[in-house]
Amino acid sequence: MSDLAAASSLVHARDGTRLKGQEGPRADAVQSIGARPIIMTVIAAFLVFVFLAPILLVIAVSFGEKIEGASWVWAFDPSNYARVFVGIGWPDQITLLYAYKLGYTLAYAVLGSLIAIAFAFPFTYFLSQCSRPAQAAWLVFILASLSMSEVFIVMGWDIMLSNRSGLPALFKATGVTAWLKDTGWLAVLKDWGLANPRNVKFKTSQLATVLTMAYLVWPYAVILLYAPLSRIDRSMIEAARTMGAGSFTVMRTVVVPVVRIPVMGTLLLLFVYLLGAYVTVTYFAEPAHQTLPVSIYEAIRGATLNAPFGAAQAVVLLSTAGVFILASLWLGRLAENRGR
Amino acid sequence: MKATFKNGFMLLCAAYISLPIVIVCLSALNGGRSMLFPPKDPTFARFYEFFVSEPVWLRSMENSIIVALASATLAVLITWPIAYDQWKRNTAFSKALTGLAGLPFALPPIVFGVGLSFLWTFAGGLGNIFTGILSHTALLAALPLVTISIGLQSIDRFHLDAAQTMGADEPTILRTIILPQTLSYTLSGFFFVVVLSFHEFIVIFFVSASAYSTVTLQIFNSLRNGFTPTMAVGAITFLLVSIVVFSAVARYGDLPRLLGADPARKDN
Amino acid sequence: MAGLVLKDVRKTYGEVTALKNIDLVFPSGKLTALLGPSGCGKTTLLRIIAGLETPTRGNLSLNGEDITTLPANRRKFGMVFQSFALFPHLSVGENVAYSLTISGVEKKTRSKRAQELLDLVQMADFQDRRIGQLSGGQRQRVAIARALAQEPQVFLLDEPMSALDAQLRETMQVELRLLQQQLNITTIVVTHDQREAMTMADEIVVMSNGVSEQIGSPTDIYQRPETPFVASFIGKANFLDGTVRGGRVFVGDSAFDLEKPAPFVDGSPVQLVCRPENAELCAADTNASNILTGPVSFVRDVGPTREVFVETDAGRIICEMPSSDATPVTQGEVTGIRLKSHTLFCFPRPDPGNLEKTVEEAGRRENVAA
Q: Is A324 at the interface with chain B, CB within 8 A?
């Protein structure tokens, strides 16, 4: 940009006489035409190197071969992928360890994004009916919470759910624990993995994992739903009201059908985002219920140190994300065409 | 729907969203080394530790700021010509560049982080802060790309015609009409990158190779040993930065429009 | 040749022809209005004159110099846009001085010039205001001042009044005309409002369907329309289908004499056009020439005039007369209408349904041009 601006100010260092279309052909115009391909080529090269090459490298490395006790070498070895889906001993035996991890990854992401949408949709609908300044204020709040790192959010939930302080301590102090014990609910919760003999327990549990994930994407859901919901033609809602539809009926028969496609698109994007959640899972899910990102981390930088295998898992995650991103793009185009 | 129900629901959501953040903030007041809530022996000593006495946090803060500002600047410089070219010419080439520039943001960051760690291993520079800057530029370039594109689309084409009939050529129009009218959008994109770079840890974890760390990465690295109240000070600091930045965007730019609200509907 | 001359200008967008073979002369110092329904190509023509679009064929010259390939920023014809296109990031004064700023005129000179222009459009105290603080009328004044700042050789206005409310529109039309006469600048105004064109223009170019139908002074165009389109678009008109026989026009059994014998061979199908104010009520007499008879179907008094609808065998005729000397008629009464011979126009009859098709095509072209 600065180059363009510089070029333009150069072009305009001309004398102050006022002319009426009498100027001769200007050499400097040629110069600015020449700058564009150079700038764009440099940028394209940069994009290919820093934006695209990493993704291609992950794919290339995923076919590499791990050398026992050492690093790895380039190869064309699909066994890393076989290991992800059916285990290292295949075909003699099938281990679904990593397939399960993929399953947990998908399950957490689906549940987390569904819960987030369920709460974000009415919130955003109400938000879009606020006054413009109120909307701006809410959006600042939403954006601030959206930008909070997963690290910080897990920090907060960790305190809230930890056994020493937070909810379990609150339950105990207020007598809810005692009541649960008396009514026998504690035993039920214990069966669900949400209690120990003495008190309720949320860490570690799948419930905590999913809820924290839902929390993580809730602001994203609001931001993504904001555009379609705030663009709904207000007179359409008013028309429905004059025809006798109550608020809930309006929501069900007008608002939801109109934004059905953007909502699906949002759901997909949230889902893709949650596929990559890492800290939440390491903190709130027990090792047996952990996900692909955790095992990618372990393979690349953690205990197992097997870059090709980590890369293969990353490619599986990438392809999963890719499929859903394409689906959301397709939905986006569909919504646009409907809008015409 | 009853206004009270509406407001009640919105406030409940707000409370739910604020709760963990408030708890993090308050636990920064803990006197001891563990995160307790409500805080025990409240004190501001952790702030002193974070900002003054513990060099590890100061160094991380410095790195955070360098990475955030540099990658935001780079991201804006790279995306401006892409967005402009796409808006002005809309060729297949410009479309491809736009798609490519937005790609990393759409992928799970851990995948892109792994890829970047391979890239910098082969190309050299793994563990150099410069590669960290480039990595965040790539990861977050989608944000200024989007805000600048929205800014360009918001320009009234008749303004360009008007400038032309008054004697302005393409570079002059760029300088006197397009740049001033998209300034708030460009700055919004810049600050979105700054804020998200502050909070990002997974990509920077892979490309820093433990040679340096940002505040968020420092906290991430201490994850296994548990959180401490000093880390909460970092969270507070970044939270305040976010609030200031987004308030400024809302004040000087059109935040609802940036996020896709109908521009025509100013008052409802 | 002095003034702006368009020779054989044609503009096509792919398959669609927006302008076909436009030959026009805009005399220096005069105000010309391009008048026509939306989609007739008048805005495209104005944009070609400004240099914002290049004609597919033909050329433009200004005072004998070919300017066909000169880009808009080198033509520097001042232009006022429909939406005014004032820059919101600049103050009123900076907007007016924009053309001077970018050509490097020093600050003192340009703010003096901006002040002069703002004085001219009666906006003297507004130099430091933001655009957002101005009303529609004020914006228009600023847009006019801004377009004049570069002392353009040709001054262009694209539907300049359409963003204003009706009352302000009338005032501004008069003001703009006075300003143009004061500056004696070659001016072209695009409008779809015949009243506006007639208020301001020395000369009106009536356009339809990408061609100029008629060029002439406002009175010329109203009193001597050359095509049925002009007759129907400018003012109100009654149309009657007839046949020529011996220089007279026969509508059914009624014969009509024109001022001069109709210049058509016998048996030609023609259209007879009569303005409502030139049709007068008279006694029903089927034998006299230039008279039609029929029952009155509707009467309305609209302020200064009264309109009477008469259902004749040849179709409905509307008569208009001043309220003051209106003869009393009642609905259902059979009456005669006399069409005075010197006020009748006669055109070859177009194919049936032709007019509707024209409008349809025009609408399609509008979409493409936008």
A: no
